[in-house]
Design brief:
The complex is a heterodimer of chains A (about 350) and B (about 180).
Chain A lengths: L1 H23 L2 H8 L3 E5 L3 E3 L3 H18 L2 E3 L2 H10 L10 H11 L3 E10 L2 E10 L5 E10 L5 H12 L6 H9 L13 H10 L3 H5 L3 H41 L3 H45 L5 H10 L3 E6 L4 E6 L4
Parallel strand pairs in A: 1-3, 1-4, 2-4
Antiparallel strand pairs in A: 4-5, 5-6, 7-8
Helix pairs in contact in A: 1-5, 3-6, 6-7, 8-11, 10-11
Chain B lengths: L1 H17 L25 E5 L2 E4 L4 E14 L1 E7 L5 E8 L1 H4 L6 E7 L4 E7 L8 E14 L3 E7 L4 E3 L5 E2 L3 E2 L2 E5 L1
Parallel strand pairs in B: 1-12, 2-13
Antiparallel strand pairs in B: 1-3, 3-8, 4-7, 4-9, 4-10, 5-8, 6-7, 9-13, 10-11
Classes of the chains: A alpha/beta (about 350), B mainly beta (about 180).
Chain lengths: ~350, ~180
């Protein structure tokens, strides 16, 4: 019975402080309040199956994303922590709506956001809700289920921040969600078909390796290396036979004995035949190598990573007809949609 | 960036064409002693080498060869040279007769005033010594007096004979070309 009284006294004091502060707020903050933005605080999300530190990190990320929505005036988490500590309030145990309202009243903010991150099997569940401090009612709640590496929770929770504010998440966030955890690798850029093509154009097989098709990539690389190697060997043979041809021709020109002249002529002709054979072989390997190079480039493009544009294209290619169940008529209907 | 892309597209194409090696022509044989390649019939008289590159003031040697002869026992060879540009240093016996069992007679005369060289070589006696095929009759050492081109040309008076002193028809003559720089 003592605690509600204490809370009441602190709330009155805090509201007084807030009111006093309002008068000294800068113009920007005033205009934000005047725009109808609500003061909101985010409680640490409850960790159910992940550790506390991860839950706090995800809460921080959620708060950052919430700030980016520009729909709320966010109570700084460090400030919130300080106030709650001053009040001797343990935030970690505050998971219920009532507790959230109590904390919100303590902080003097209009809305409180609480949430929980759980793990069931290999899936993660995230639940967030926005509670009005004044009425104690849940204004909005969002949940998300995600299966994949833990890194992917970051983007899921950022998206939930936008959805909780009834806003469409930014495209880059949705792109990251499509790409999964890999999108969070430092400096990572989305892989594209053109990227695969360019890589294969420079080094055969690299486009395929870049696209994750390591088997075909290394096969092409080895084949290309083999052909280039054979071409180089043929070229070396050609040069050796060219030297031989020059030597034998010099011998022929220097010969004065008819039998030697005849012998050197045969050797010159033989060296020329060998030159032609090695040159034909060289051309064969060069053309085969160039052909493989071209095929590898085209292959890299077609087996390359899917672009988002491709997904949209595929979606647009889906037939406008579809079967749908109507609960009103308790019948399956054929629907036909046309984009206007 | 666009230029870079164009460049890397060109790389395989350039690779294809840059490796096309040149094959020498088949008809490269021009040894003046190659009976299959010379433009004249045999028996013939020719100079070897047929083209000489030298410097003004420098010395060089040229050999007189007989090609495709049968049973030759003696020869009289006369050829002209440009007396304004060339000077005869010496005339030496060739190997064609000296390789035979019997030593030959070798007489040479240089007519510097007219730019002519006369060479007589033959086997002596009634022995049926003769040589066949292709061989050197004489070696002449010249000095190039001045820069310019000059030719060595056989005279129609040249003659080949067999052991019965019968004339062997000379069907072809090869010229010599001297280019002094």
């Amino acid at each position: 019975m003592k605690r509600p009284l204490t809370v009441f006294i602190f709330s009155v004091v805090l509201m007084g402080v807030v009111q006093a502060q309002y008068t000294s707020l800068n113009e920007e903050t005033k205009s934000m309040i005047d725009e109808g933005k609500k003061t909101t605080a985010v409680l640490d999300f409850e960790a159910r199956g992940i550790n506390e530190r991860e839950a706090k990190t995800l809460t921080d990320r959620f708060s950052s994303a919430l700030g980016k929505t520009n729909k709320v005036i966010l109570v700084q988490r460090t400030m919130m922590k300080e106030i709650l500590e001053e009040q001797g309030f343990q935030q970690s145990g505050c998971t219920s709506d009532e507790c959230a309202v109590e904390v919100g009243a303590l902080l003097g903010c209009q809305y409180m956001i609480s949430g929980a991150i759980g793990k069931i099997g290999n899936s993660y569940t995230i639940d967030v809700k926005n509670v009005s401090v004044e009425s104690g009612a849940t204004e909005n709640s969002q949940s998300s289920t995600y299966a994949g590496p833990k890194d992917g929770l970051i983007v899921e929770i950022e998206i939930l921040a936008w959805l909780l504010m009834n806003l469409e998440p930014p495209k880059d966030l949705l792109d990251k969600q499509k790409r999964g955890a890999a999108a969070y690798a430092p400096g990572e850029k989305p892989k594209t078909k053109v990227g695969a093509l360019m890589r294969s154009l420079v080094v055969p097989g690299f486009g395929q390796i870049y696209s994750g098709k390591k088997g075909s990539g290394f096969t092409i690389l080895l084949l290309e290396a083999g052909m280039v190697g054979m071409a180089a060997k043929s070229n070396n043979d050609y040069l050796a036979f060219q030297t031989e041809w020059n030597t034998q021709l010099s011998n022929y020109n220097a010969a004065t004995v008819p039998s030697e002249i005849a012998d050197y002529k045969i050797l010159v002709d033989q060296a020329r035949s060998d030159m032609m054979a090695s040159n034909d072989q060289l051309n064969l390997f060069i053309y085969a190598s160039a052909g493989l190079w071209a095929v590898n480039t085209i292959h890299a493009f077609f087996v390359g990573p899917k672009n988002d544009d491709d997904d949209e294209e595929e979606a647009s290619k889906s037939p406008p007809f579809q079967l749908a169940y109507s609960p009103l008529t308790n019948q399956v209907k054929l629907q036909w949609e046309i984009d206007l | 960036m666009k230029t870079f892309r164009h460049l890397i597209i060109l790389v395989p194409i350039l690779l294809m064409f840059s490796c096309d090696n040149e094959i020498p022509e088949e008809d490269v044989f021009d040894n003046p002693l190659d009976e299959e390649e010379v433009t004249y019939e045999t028996p013939a008289l020719t100079f070897y080498p047929k083209e000489i590159e030298t410097n003004a003031g420098g010395s060089f040697s040229v050999e007189v060869f007989v090609l495709g002869v049968e049973n030759m026992s003696g020869s009289y060879v006369r050829f002209s040279f440009d007396k304004a540009r060339l000077q005869v240093v010496s005339v030496n016996v060739g190997s064609f007769f000296t390789d035979a069992e019997q030593a030959p007679v070798f007489i040479s005369e240089v007519d510097g005033a007219n730019g002519l060289i006369n060479i007589n070589t033959s086997f002596l006696g009634s022995d049926s010594v003769s040589v066949s095929g292709t061989g050197s009759l004489a070696e002449i050492v010249f000095t190039a007096l001045s820069a310019g081109n000059s030719t060595l040309s056989f005279d129609g008076a040249s003659e080949l004979v067999d052991k019965d002193d019968q004339t062997i028809e000379i069907k072809g003559f090869g010229e010599g070309l001297v280019n002094a720089q």
